[in-house]
Amino acid sequence: MPLADNTTLLRLQQELTTVKYRPQETGLATGYQALDQALPSKGWPTGAVTELLVPRLGSGEFRLLLPLLADITGRDQWIALVRPPWVPNPHALAAAQVDLRRLRLIRAKTSKDALWATDQLLRSGAFKAVVAWPEALPGASIRKLQLAAENGRCCGFLIRSDRHMRQHSMAPLRIHLKPRSFSEAEFLHNPYRLELQLQILKCRGLLHQRELTVEMNLLE
Amino acid sequence: MLWLCLYFPHWPLQVAERGIKPQKPLVLVRNARVSHANASARQTGIRPGMRTAAAYALAAGLATAQRERSAEQQALQRLAAWAYQYSDRILLDQQALLIEAAGSLKLYGSLPQFIDMLQTGLKRLGYRSRIGVAPTPAAARAFAPRQTIAVDRTQLQQHIQHLSPAALPLTDDRRLALQQTGVPDLKTLLRFSPAELRRRFGSELTNYLARLTGQQLDPRTPYQPPSRFKSYLNLPAPIHIAEGLLFAARRLLEELCGFLTATDAAASRIEWRLGHEDHPASRFTIELSSPDRDPARWMVILQEKLVNWELPAPIEKISLRADRIVSHKPRQNDWLDQSGEKEATGRVLERIQTRLGKESVTGIHHRQDYYPEKSWCYQVFDETRNQSHLSTHQPLWLLPQPVSMPDKPNPSVSVAMQQIKTGWWKQEDWPTRVYYISSGIESGGLRLWVYQTPNDNYYLQGLYD
Lengths: 220, 465
What we know:
The complex is a heterodimer.
Chain A: H1 6-20, H2 33-38, E1 48-54, H3 61-74, E2 78-82, E3 87-88, H4 90-95, E4 103-106, H5 111-124, E5 127-132, H6 141-152, E6 155-161, E7 173-179, H7 184-189, E8 193-203, E9 210-217
Parallel strand pairs in A: 1-6, 1-7, 2-4, 2-5, 5-6
Antiparallel strand pairs in A: 7-8, 8-9
Helix pairs in contact in A: 5-6
Chain B: E1 3-7, H1 11-17, E2 26-30, E3 33-37, H2 39-43, H3 52-58, E4 63-66, H4 69-83, E5 90-93, E6 96-100, H5 102-108, H6 111-125, E7 130-134, H7 137-143, H8 153-161, H9 172-180, H10 186-191, H11 194-201, H12 203-213, E8 229-239, H13 246-262, E9 265-276, E10 282-292, H14 295-307, E11 315-322, E12 325-327, H15 345-356, E13 361-362, E14 364-366, E15 376-378, E16 397-404, E17 414-420, E18 433-438, E19 448-452, E20 458-463
Parallel strand pairs in B: 2-4
Antiparallel strand pairs in B: 1-6, 1-7, 2-3, 5-6, 8-11, 9-10, 9-11, 9-12, 14-15, 16-20, 17-18, 18-19, 19-20
Helix pairs in contact in B: 4-13, 7-12, 11-12, 13-14, 14-15
């Protein structure tokens, strides 16, 4: 017995096409033209959590977010950093035009507390962007955070080790970041130049993986 | 003038019952006998006058309490403070409050609307009342038990005639004396001339009747609200889990916020005290980022606080006090969101602080110090501050304290960038630092911010990201 007749299949196929090409809400400008163009939402998606997977913390992933954070605080909206791995340098943040008056740090003692706080912040609608460095994300927590971000129309970022790359995730956008290796001569020529290789592992509205390179200057 | 009387039937029970859900049977006990029994207790067959032991046999989960007259008086005072938000002319009476309503009606619409609002408010506080309305306070009080309403002099005259002398709020002796004379209703009594009345019943009753009909003004001085708030509830059944407190706590919060609204004030800090039987009382305070008088806001924070809280012993009494009361200002703090549809920033942060501790939420700011490890602080600054004046050559991340490096960084991937030798005026031997940006093989391509001291020690101070 056939599983479905031809008309049903045809209809399903049509529905799938419409789902796939449903126009997406415009996101928040990333500050990098190449990245904005690569993302279907033309920027960081709002009402969603984005996973940034890195070989090591400090690979350039937080710097990648600075234009966004500067933009949000510049419009008098709030951002929060949940349990960052080190002390965010106020001098460097101010140099990147981030308004420190609109930034709050959550210094949770345990990873569980941090996760709870992240959820609260995403859900509240009071913060435009929330960046978290979760150590462990047990079970359905990404799904829960995703729902919280949807509820609060918040732009959430989870910065994690790329060990979790193969793990299934409910995050609508997952990016693997890697600084391009450089030669000694290149480094000595300009030690502040950074090329970040971005691999979009998964993105709502995007059918295939994409790769791009973003250039940054550590002093800007 | 139009007076509205809130009369609280079974007042001693109402006061004792506030801390429990109304379905529970409760009796007040005096000399091992039941003096008052609530509706649930009466349903089981318990009657006033019964021995306590017999009452226990009738109702399994029976709660008992002693009657406390001082508590009843204080509860009435607090209700007056709550009612003060609706009118600034409040009189205290026996088991009743009198509210001058003529002014309030302009603000709150019609009389039925006003009454409805009062009843809803009282219900939330955990009280039941009967309401009487009349042009004189004494008449409003006399009408309240039977919920009579007289909005003008004509109606007043009409309804007064049908009042039974037994229903008048007089002392027991006077009421008895009046009943013994065989006067069936006030109509008969009011036919006497004042002189005759005085001769036969004494001046107290004569004056009372004059106040009732409005021939004489009520001499009582209106209630004045206090400048701080304190209230408590005795819990007839001990509470064993912290979350079980929420019911009683909500009633106290409603009372506090009514008091604050009444005095056009707000509080930013309240203190809870939980009394245990064989254990010193537990205390904790709750703070808001800005003064407020919205019970819901306090409630959310209290809930967070109680979720993780372990009781040292069962709770028998809960008290709430607010000493720092400030005049109320509409919110315009920039912690809070103007739009109103989203949750205010301050509220989420408050909730996080309540659960994770006060230190858990902070800002980060720069300090004027040439040494990077001292040039920042965890602090919230909401006012405009000068932007950093320091070199932007600094990395995005700092270590809380510089960490000594076991090996010298690889010179072929290290670039010297700046020297810091300030601080010499503080201390002769303050070491000069030479800073490098360095990328070791060890660090897997990370760029480190390292400094060298004159005696060739290397320290890691930050990471570029």
